[in-house]
Write the structure tokens for this entry.
Amino acid sequence: MSVRARLRNLEPSFVVVVGLGAILVFLVLYPLFWLLVGSLYNPASGGFGLANFAAAYGRERYIIALRNSLVLGTAVTALCSVVAVPMAWAVSRTNMPGKTLVRMLTLGAFATPPYLGALAWILLAGPNAGWLNAAYRAITGSATGIFNIFSFPGLVFIIAIYSYPYLFVFTSTALDSVSSEMEDAANILGAGRWRTISRVTLPLVVPAIAGGAIITFLESIALFGSPAMIAIPARYNVVTTQLLEFFSYPVRVQVAEAYALPLLAVTVALYLLQQRLIGRRGYVTLTGKSGERRPIELGRLRWPAFAGCMFVAGLSVVLPLAVIVQAAFARTWTRGFGLDNLTWGNFHYVLLEQPATARSMINTFTFAAAAAVLALGLALAIAYLVERKLIRFAGILSFLCLAPFVVPGIVLAIGFYAAYAARPFFLYGTAAIMILAFTTRFLPIAYANAGAAIRSINPEMEEAVRILGGSRWLAVRRVLAPLLKGSLASAWLLVFIPATRELSTAIFLYGPNTQVMSVMLLNLTDEGRLEAAAAFGLLLLAAIILIALTGFGLLGRDFMVRRSE
Amino acid sequence: MSVPAGGVKLALRGIGRRFGDVVAVSDVTLELRAGEFASLLGPSGCGKTTTLRMIAGFIRPTEGTIEMDGEVLSSAQTSRPPERRNMSMIFQSYAIWPHLTVAENVAFGLTLRQLSASAIRAKVERMLAAVRLHALAERYPAELSGGQQQRVALARAMVIEPGVLLLDEPLSNLDAGLREEMRFEIRRLHDEFRITTVYVTHDQAEAMVTSDRIAVMNQGRVEQIDPPYILYNRPRTKFVAGFIGRTNFLHAKVEGGAMRVDGLAIDPARLLAGTDIKPCGSMTMSIRPQSIILTAAPPAARPDQPGWFMEGTVAQRAYLGEHWDYLVTPANSTAQLRASASPACIFEVGDRVWLSIDPAQIVWLP
């Protein structure tokens, strides 16, 4: 084929493809590249070498922090497994009462920002003054409390009560797709109830449980907020708080980069393992309801099972919410409920007295909204090219879109810092670096949703436009866009909501004018202004819930959703 | 149902399509006169949909050319995009846009052609009346039944008066009764508007009801292109004979003037009388079940008339309402023949029967 013919046949989308590829390179590859280069760079000598790694792993306390993270992750995962798997089984397979309530409260635990939960548990189980300790002292007459959240077990506990939903969702989804007939088949061959569970039901969902366990482990070692609030006062470090230390005076960015690489490596390796597990043939796929399912009769155990589930949900949602509300409206949170202790002062303080806190609220929602628009726009364009098979090697673009999923937020932040903070971009402390980092962090969510949305539209819908004389662009505008409206709005919310509460990506990138609510909450807690922090957290929570409800309310009424069924 | 006279509207000249190493379509040649209705008929995976999508311009051929009104639309080098072909298409899923009303769906193509609002309204109204949907113009597609959606798809495709209309298995999502009704509806609309049409289906009854000519496809190639009557009565390949209707295949071997059909010795002169087939080597004959007449008594053979008679035993039978289906084993033969008989013609399994076959009804295949 001649060059001219080739040029004539070039899809006009070629330019678009190159542009999208370039954006992805800058958002995803460039920061990681600088993370790697920076870790090898020696600012003193100007040369390259392993000096940063020597510094990062040369001191015992740094190694201990690394070990702490691994122990923390393992302990959290073990605790979550013990709690979440039986809960998931009870909710999905038995006649336990209140199953919907348990599911909703688990969703609530999932939606609560972990650092807000940590704040609540400082109020609940802080040594001496914490509510639970006060109650204990009042009941027993003891002089000292028994709970101390500022401890390693305390940290494991508060991370676990907000991480168990991962395992719960993985396990219950898998259990939901196991047909009762599978169990009936075992029964008819002579297996009893417990034998059936142990030999048939459980093995069917083991890959899902293992997958959920790995995600739990990864999330807990990548977490920054809870360790910062609990581990630092308790005077020990995990990897993420150690990274913060490298960023404090004297700032040693290159050492931080070297220190962050193993975290990235562990995450990538475990994620690949998780994908293998899920991909194995044993995994029960979620393609619709397979066969009839009958709940298992628990008999006398029905209410004890419900009590157990509610105990977990109470620890993660009900109690924390109660203390947060109490503290937010209290002059002094330790004085408990009482009319004389009620005040609007905390809200007045964070909304009006402190320009920084008020500003951070605006920042939070504008950054999150902008990042959600950017991530979704990018994801949509790429998902369209990939799903409609418009270009070769589209797999590379979709890989780049999904890659940030395995990068812990704090590592991504260090990469962005290395790549864009200084020359030639000088983005440190700007809104742009925050928005771009959030965009990258949530690009995988946006991409997964955009891809699913486009897959749900039969390509023949667009082909019908083209054969009637409309261009591809017209088909996108007049048919695809209106049909996708509903699912795109919910995809936008799914990016926007986590972006409003993101902490670990923000912590190394914010400047004096670009603080966000999560950072501010951490600082307020740090300063000991727990009532103000509680009021602020409540505002964040209320705003998220309000936006989610408004969003889903609008979508629910959208006639598109019904008519396109 | 005569083949309309007219110039060549659409021509496929030796088109082929490879996907990597897989040959989906190979050397398909087909000429449609203006106003003709042709079907591409074949089993799934035979390349018929790929061929249709090449005509529409969604897929580019790797070999050959597609021409409309003498202009090349597609070749391995260039392909005019679908939107500039002045065709329209009815999709398997109908692809009715759920966010537009029936009238808006039908008007879409006219709007793109920048007709005046009043012209659009008039055309849409006339077309909706033609497909008997005028009462439902303001409905949304989700409020329509499957058959009504099908009519919307037809109206939307035909209202722009395309040069060529393409239909991709349009009835496969309908239930049996509706499918039969829509076959005649499609043909009726064709007789009314005379749009050159290519129809893809795997259902021979659909193709036979609607088409002027049928191209039977198998493994990416066209086996035979002919009007339904000829296709059924004079299939040229074993595949066509077996795919269109039911038939019995018998294997004939000719050696030195003597012919043996599955163990039976037959005088070739009796079978081949009136044909120009020269008995030689091995041949396959195709005999339709309804070409075999079953009688209880031996037929009175007249020596001056050709004919093939033999005795056999009923091995299986099934009553299908409109006719009996018998499976008969001829005496001294390994073959089994399927024969249709009228409901009044009753034999029990194990009965001895006589089979008579008119040689003119036998189709000889290579």
Observations:
- Chain A has two domains: 14-43+344-565, 58-279+302-337.
- The first helix of chain A runs from residue 3 to 9.
